[in-house]
Amino acid sequence: MKALILVGGFGTRLRPLTLSVPKPLVDFANKPMILHQIEALKAIGVTEVVLAINYQPEVMLNFLKDFEEKIGIKITCSQETEPLGTAGPLALARDKLTDISGDPFFVLNSDVISEYPLKQMIEFHKSHGGEASIMVTKVDEPSKYGVVVMEESTGQVERFVEKPKLFVGNKINAGIYLLNPSVLDRIELRPTSIEKEVFPNIARDKKLYAMVLPGFWMDIGQPRDYISGLRLYLDSLKKKSSPKLAAGPHIIGNVLVDESAKIGEGCLIGPDVAIGPGCVVESGVRLSRCTVMRGVRIKKHACISSSIIGWHSTVGQWARVENMTILGEDVHVGDEIYSNGGVVLPHKEIKSSILKPEIVM
Amino acid sequence: MESLEEKVVAVIIVGGPAEGTRFRPLSFNTPKPLLPLAGRPMVHHPISACKKIPNLAQIFLIGFYEGKEFALYVSSISNELQVPVRYLKEDKPHGSAGSLYYFQDQIMEDSPSHIFLLNCDVCCNFPLPNMLDAQKRYGGMGTLLVIKVSAESANQFGELVADPITKELLHYTEKPETFVSDLINCGVYIFTPKIFDAIEDVYMRQEDRANVHHVTSFEALQITARSPPTDFVRLDQDILSPLAGKRQLYTYETMDFWEQIKTPGISIKCSALYLAQFRIASPDLLAKGDGTKNATVVGDVCIHPSAKVHPTAKIGPNVSISANVRVSPGVRLINCIILDDVEIDENAVVMHSIVGWKSSIGKWSRVQADGDYNKKLGITILGEAVTVEDEVVVINSIVLPNKSLNESVQDEIIL
């Protein structure tokens, strides 16, 4: 079976992190975002993944070389020369997605994290016999998204409503699709929206079905949702009693610590923290609701909450970093500095406190 | 009798990516020294000033940027000016004087009698031939270009005191807290090869001081094992200050303009200064037009020959338009720098801004700022490939590359 992951864009909402690497390679729970999806696809027997990209192909291709061998799955790139929207890339990758088996293929949106119940989705797809299946997820504020109106018992999709003003339903497109190759005949090689042009056509033919996504779902394309997403992800690890979660007297709640990271004495870590490879957390440090990426050093007595600390950065002694502070790559926060929501671009030194949310270039 | 073969070389310090953060977002894809001012890269202005030096043998650019970032520019400028220009990459910081010493062999290759040292981020008239004459008259080790500034602003620079008759440098102090003098160091120097001895002396004294400390035998082994001196030698504190008043250093005062190009806002100001200089020295570099065959031009404007500007547009004062730019009918541009491949649609207005490469400015949109160069958001900067949609207003903001603005913004940094 094959799959396409829509990578697209510049990832500007995840700046400053995406100033250093393309968005699919930004680490989430100590793993590049796209690896979560590739591993889920591999687990259900997908043999080839096509990445639809239009930005920094060299960086992506290098990454792929490393991971192709480690994961044991074929990874290729389909590069857009102009942005093709959410459906156009499928037409571009047509030859890679279809083969003599005539099997359906998965399409995933790279910003999404979830439990990826792909096996259930295959069964659902077989059972309804339609042309396309999509996962939908229930949200509290459907008007922020595109709502999928469907018949509850069969899951047959009636229509899509983009950002509805009146309540029409609370299920939105989760960005996970399973499509028969015949869907490709409906897509022209031009900038096309799968939600606005392709799916409504299939729905009109009564061949589009939606399955409610079990478990958590998050679009982690921006920092606030990234941090909430980590909480959901770690929570799902907890539910599965995953051995990956850290334990110990200095751990509260769900915490992920890479085996090569070092944590000092007298620290209190958690809840909802991910500490990446090669990190050094010195003694007396308090971390909560934050992500600490590869190679970061948190010095003694520092306190970090609700923030993302980018690769190879350092946080000084007694520093306090909180309220959606996002440090890009190689940012060094001085001793005793306070950052309240500072968003700091890569390769900077912070020598004076940031008292209210501000972008530091 | 002077030898006719007395060669002169010039060294231009271009710095490195660490200093470029103030020029973000423009410095994301182009090193600061290559950002355009008055239609040419920043470093071009000191380089072309060097061309006026008699018997110029070579020009060296010293910096921390990767060689490949300068390779294309260096080969094309060598060709254009018919003088060898080389980029030398430093592996680690040696200090402003230490860098000179580190590349002593290359710099002294042609056995020059004099070495000019210029800082790339200085915007001025570069009276280099006059400095050479002055240096020969004074006969010391070196001469500094100096300028009088307002007493209030003097403490941002190196303040110095010079003898009014002999022009000798009597006293030098970097960024003093109290007022010393309104005469400051411009960051343009000429030295004789004796400068290398002076720098070496500083290294020796640093090593002696290190050796006086009690060291373990292991540390002592480390010290002797180091072959080139690895310490830091700064020109201002380690050479100029100590040698002031010892009849070694002299000053040459310029009455023309001088600025340090520290921020993109100041680079618009410097662009204007250079354009004004073109008006005097090379007026055919400036654009002309009255709205009939060419666009109306007000004040000093330079337009790259490949740019297309509609005759109903009004351009200037102080506007630089780079290659392949398309300016549509009815556009108004004031005090701005428009980089390569930008498209400005009908009736748009751009004031006090820098518009990054490949950006597009929609119909009737306004991209502007209040033009206060000292404020962080005093000029509007659009990074590479930014789209401002029709009728959108962008005021006092900085927009990072590849963003599309479909709503007006004010006083914001858009990531």
Summarize it.
By secondary structure, chain A is α/β, with parallel strands linked by helices. Chain A has helices at 33-43, 57-71, 88-92, 94-97, 118-128, 194-204, 223-239; strands spanning 2-6, 27-28, 31-32, 48-53, 74-79, 105-109, 112-114, 132-138, 146-150, 157-162, 171-179, 208-212, 217-219, 255-257, 262-263, 268-269, 273-275, 280-281, 286-288, 291-292, 297-298, 303-305, 308-309, 314-315, 320-322, 326-327, 331-333, 338-340, 342-344, 348-350, 358-360.
Name the biggest interface.
A-B, 12 and 14 residues
Separation, N- and C-terminal Cα atoms of chain B: 63 Å
Low-confidence stretches of chain B: 224-229
Shape of chain B: elongated
Total DSSP helices of chain B? 9
Number of helices of chain A: 7
Major sheet size, sense and barrel closure of chain A: 7 strands, mixed
Low-confidence stretches of chain A: none
Kindly provide the radius of gyration of chain A, computed on alpha-carbon positions and rounded to a whole number of angstroms. Answer: 21 Å
Secondary-structure-derived class of chain A? alpha/beta
Terminal CA distance of chain A reads 45 Å
Multimeric organization: heterodimer
Mean pLDDT of chain A comes to 92
Which range best describes the helical content of chain A: under 10%, 10-25%, 25-40%, 40-55%, 55-70% or over 70%? Answer: 10-25%
Taking Cα atoms only, what radius of gyration of chain B do you get, to the nearest Å? Answer: 23 Å
Q: How many individual β-strands of chain B?
A: 33
Spatially, the strands of the biggest sheet of chain A line up as: 5-4-1-6-11-8-12
Tell me, rounded to a whole number, the average pLDDT of chain B.
90
Number of DSSP-assigned strands of chain A = 31
Task: Classify the beta-strand content of chain A into a percent band.
Answer: 25-35%
Describe the structure.
Chain A: Pfam families: GMPPB_C, NTP_transferase. Chain A: This is mannose-1-phosphate guanylyltransferase. Chain A: Its EC number is 2.7.7.13. Chain A: InterPro entries: GMPPB_C (IPR056729), GMPPB_N (IPR045233), Mannose-1P_guanyltransferase (IPR050486), NTP_transferase_dom (IPR005835), Nucleotide-diphossugar_trans (IPR029044). The complex is a heterodimer of chains A (361) and B (415). Chain A has 361 residues and is α/β, with parallel strands linked by helices. Chain A has 7 helices and 31 strands. Chain A is elongated. In chain B, the strands form 7 sheets. In chain B, strands 5-4-1-6-11-8-12 form a 7-stranded mixed sheet, with helices on both faces. In chain B, strands 14-17-20-23-26-29-32 form a 7-stranded parallel sheet, with no helix packed on it. Chain B starts with 7 loop residues before the first strand and ends with a strand. Chain B is α/β, with parallel strands linked by helices. The longest helix of chain B has 19 residues. In chain B, strand 4, helix 2 and strand 5 form a beta-alpha-beta unit. Helices cover 24% and strands 28% of the residues of chain B. The interface between A and B is medium-sized, with 12 and 14 residues.
